[in-house]
Amino acid sequence: MSLEIRENRGIFEILGKVSIQHVGALNSYFDSILERNENVVISLEKVTMLDSAAAHFFEKLYQKSVKQNKVISLIGRQNRSISEIMNTTKTNYILSSDRV
């Protein structure tokens, strides 16, 4: 399954494998979303694979939103497909503890 992003009731759901190949496109996509929105919810619950570059991308996106006084909620803490890489890269702190 290739990478897909769906907007479902204001939640941006990422589906499929997310790797270094997708970081540039994801950066452009979410930069434009952040320009138009104060609060953004991104679901990683349907991500089937995440590499370390993608984990660090989401961390940078999270930090960028803080600097812009925006709120990004990344949900998917229960997704076992991403938990190991998020723990290994020490980026799991960006995942919201509450489901939306």
> Which descriptor suits the 3D outline?
globular
Return Rg in Å: 12 Å
Helix content: 25-40%
How many E strands?
4
Class per helix and strand makeup? alpha/beta
How is the main sheet built?
4 strands, mixed
Q: Tell me the strand percentage band.
A: 25-35%
The low-confidence runs, each spanning 5 or more residues with pLDDT under 50, are none
- How far from one another are the termini? 25 Å
SSE succession: EEHEHEH
Arrangement of strands in the largest sheet: 1-2-3-4
Can you summarize this structure?
The chain contains 3 helices and 4 strands, in the order E-E-H-E-H-E-H. The protein has helices spanning 23-36, 52-67, 80-88; strands at 4-8, 11-18, 39-50, 71-75.
What layout of secondary structure does this protein have?
Elements: E1 4-8, E2 11-18, H1 23-36, E3 39-50, H2 52-67, E4 71-75, H3 80-88
Parallel strand pairs: 2-3, 3-4
Antiparallel strand pairs: 1-2
Helix pairs in contact: 1-2
How would you describe the overall organization of this protein?
The chain is built from three helices and four strands, in the order ββαβαβα. The protein is α/β, with parallel strands linked by helices and 100 residues long. A four-stranded mixed sheet has the order 1-2-3-4.
